[in-house]
Write a structure and sequence with these properties.
The chain is mainly alpha-helical. Helix content is about 45%, strand content about 5%. The relative contact order is 0.20. The chain has a two-stranded parallel sheet. The longest helix has 18 residues, at about 15-30. The protein has one domain. GO terms for molecular function: lyase activity. It holds the Pfam family Pyr_excise. Keywords: Lyase.
Length: about 150
């Protein structure tokens, strides 16, 4: 499961659809509707939010909005609570840089033209559900720490 902290605009088609599916799974976990993935580390930041279902709903809404702008039809009716007033979730710039390096490598393999388009970006915009704060990679992160100083 990868619930990207980067803005969905940077994701290729495969990444955007996978993010949607995985965020729907995260919503089900947070709602207690499934027994799988309950201890997945990426759920920590949503679970720790004062309003976890609203926070994941806002996350899903951001992914659905990007999909709609691209002409895809993600069923926004599957989002439980996207309208609530959820405070943004802090994401450390170190975490954002690690994810950017991870995504850039995926794009180079899968969608080289998109990788080239985004190559000038050094620090990507966050998903609209997040606000960037100074800090290191999150302690829940399981991805190998890579050199992001490039």
């Amino acid at each position: 499961m990868r619930l990207w902290s980067v803005h969905p605009r940077y994701l290729d088609r495969q990444g955007l659809t996978a993010c949607w599916r995985e965020a729907l799974l995260a919503q089900a976990v947070l709602a207690g509707a499934t027994r799988g993935y309950t201890r997945h580390p990426q759920l920590a930041r949503f679970r720790d939010h004062g309003q976890p279902l609203t926070a994941i709903g806002r996350y899903l809404a951001g992914v659905a909005e990007e999909a709609s702008e691209r002409g895809y039809r993600f069923d926004a009716g599957r989002i439980h609570d996207a309208e609530g007033a959820a405070d943004p979730i802090p994401v450390a710039d170190g975490q954002l840089l690690l994810e950017w390096a991870h995504l850039s490598a995926k794009l180079l393999r899968r969608t080289p033209d998109l990788a080239a388009r985004w190559s000038p970006v050094r620090l990507p915009d966050p998903h609209p559900s997040f606000v960037v704060v100074p800090g290191p990679v999150a302690d829940w992160e399981r991805a190998a720490v890579v050199d992001v100083s490039r």
